[in-house]
Fold:
Amino acid sequence: MKPIFVTQPFLPPLDEFTELLKQIWDNKILTNSGPFHKEFEQALADFLGVKYISLFSNGTLALITALQTLKITGEVITTPFSFVATTHALWWNGIKPVFVDVEPDFCNLDAEKIEAAITPQTTAIMPVHVYGNPCQVDKIQKIADAYGLKVIYDACHAFGVQINDNSVLNFGDLSVLSFHATKVFNTIEGGAIICHDEKTKTRIDFLKNFGYDGELRVVAPGINAKMNEVQAAFGLLQLKYVEQAIAKRKIICELYKESLADVKGLSCQNEIPGVKHNYPYFPVFIDEKNFGISRDELNDLLKSHQLFGRRYFYPLISQFPTYKGLASSNPANLPVAELKTKQVFCLPIYPDLELSDVSRICELIKSAGK
Ligand code: T4K
Structure:
């Protein structure tokens, strides 16, 4: 039986990409804000419904640069329930991460618990729209405004997500996207920062290009985080297909939900009223007592059938050796995250996944449960 992985990248038709590659071969501009970079940046801003976007070579460098852009220092409040890059970006900036617990419905940073973690050293909040579900953006902004903090969203899962017809990327001071191969929208590797004014975009663009403002002036200790022309051309092409790809994900998500609705001890996440979702992951939560076997046993069972889901996000970032020693990493501080990380299991979801395979996965899960 052919293995099925948690995801598989969406690829555009090869002949269409070859046409774009020919143009790159002809004009010999490979990087440093070439014609495809410019065209893709504008097309992406229009597609997403945002004013200013800066393309990056990957999401991690975009996160690191976002923190540099706003000169964030001291302590930043963030979530332990994410991919480790979220916290690494703080560490690379010499910032101390302060972990706050998540809320149980969507595993996003719990806005109710943020205030208690603020100290005189706190300068920003860095929440994550986990699995593309928007954080409690209004509550978070209120706290940030009251305490004079910046908000930088790790929106790496949230490509195309909207709240009441407004892009989720329009909230906070900055938002960061990832276009990694495993994401809803990919440029092989890639990322972006979304900001809301021209001055900030200019600063971001300096920072991702060594700090250069023109040929001779360096205005900041920048980095090299530029997206190249091949990635940008690929992205431009991917944009044509992404709505279609998200629609296919939605069908898969609905079939999972319908098929697993009556399984005892297994829960799925609900849709949020007013939100346009993008279905990047399909997490289920296993309550061992009621389901009959543990999350890890279910993982092993599926693996024995060549079905490779993933435990995103286990272990919690706070449990990795680099961060374990922080006071806020104490499991007693993070009871909901500690529970969710032991229960979560992401089932395969990607546009080309056959519905018959989804049914097969669901049958196996049902047979494993009580
Ligand atoms: N913030 C958040 C919240 C994030 O989720 C991420 C990335 C970032 C920041 C950082 O953004 P980037 O710097 O990556 O742009 C993957 C990805 O590498 C990572 O991008 C992603 N989050 C994370 C959640 O997942 P792995 O180590 O689990 O991926 P991997 O290689 O095991 O891939 C999973 C499965 O996908 C494979 O079993 C097979 C399939 N696959 C993967 C690749 C790369 C393919 O079929 N083709 C491929 O090319 O981290």
